[in-house]
Amino acid sequence: MVKPAAIRTEAALGLLLLFITSVFLSACGRHEPVIKLEGQTMGTTYHVTLVNPGDLDGDTLKEQLDYQLAHFNTIASTYIDDSELMTLNRAEVGQWHDVSEPLYAILSLATEVSWLSQGAFDITVAPLVDLWGFGPVKTEGAPEQAALDRVMTMVGYEALQMDLMAPRVMKTHSLRMDLSAIAKGYAVDAAAVWLGSLGVTDYLVEIGGEMRVAGKSPRGDAWRIGVESPDPGSPDVLPVRVGDIAVATSGDYRNYFEEDGVRYSHTIDPRTGRPITHNLASVTVLDSSCAFADAMATAFSVMGGDKALALAEAQNIPIYIIEKTEQGFQRRHSSAFEPYLSSTRASEEEG
């Protein structure tokens, strides 16, 4: 499997599918002392649970975490006009531009996932998202072909060059980058590293549905997450036992528009410039890096079920997919995901 070194060395919408079930799955038995933090960041919410926090103070931790998340927004946000990312978006083409270590790490990983997925993941897709009406400014209906052709000239991860010897980048043509499909995962990783530096070994960090866990849950055993069915009328939840790993989910079943009987998903394929047309409803990815899992979940959503599973098998990536069929929702997973299901089954049998 490809190992994105920039993240793994800690160098610096469909999200509702995934939610924490440790709260109700751990409703019985002995509970360890915990600190719970929650708040707003990056246009969404965050939740952090620390188990056996020792002498750490919850109010102080929240203040420090909020400060760090606010600072991260000044780097990666598209909603802050003078953020480092937005400044880079406006920077001169054909010139090298110094960037901070965190932004360089994110851009490096994004480029790596783009290459791995053959362009299914591409942070330069922002103009296409806006063109199809899924950006901040809503538009009506599908765009004209001429407009699509024009916008496609502004899309392409290959136009972002990384200096391998220094944290600087160069755009070979005008680009507008959006890190929404990777930034939350990176922020989760950064928060996890920070907690580790404080000596915390048992925790859950979740931002906008992307999460990373380590050690033990408040019940004293492995953390559990639930993969919810995309069918809003179904109570079906798949519980999965995880430990020391990150989890990310992407799906297209909630955000779309219809025109002339055609359903247009909010998930745009950067390679065609058009919304995806396959039946993949959601994909859940496990990895040691939440940023990598976050980005790959988007890539797999663009690729579709068969191609996603083929790449996951080739790279030994644990993924769990749900596809919409005429008979209802169908579930499949990669071989690397099987151990997590097996551990859940074993736990249920023991219980």
From TrEMBL:
Coiled coil: none annotated. Its main location: membrane. PROSITE patterns: PROKAR_LIPOPROTEIN (PS51257). It catalyses: L-threonyl-[protein] + FAD = FMN-L-threonyl-[protein] + AMP + H(+). It is a lipid-anchor. Its EC number is 2.7.1.180. It is found in: Cell inner membrane. One of its GO terms (cellular component) is plasma membrane. Flavin transferase that catalyzes the transfer of the FMN moiety of FAD and its covalent binding to the hydroxyl group of a threonine residue in a target flavoprotein. Belongs to the ApbE family. This is FAD:protein FMN transferase. It comes from Spongiibacter nanhainus.
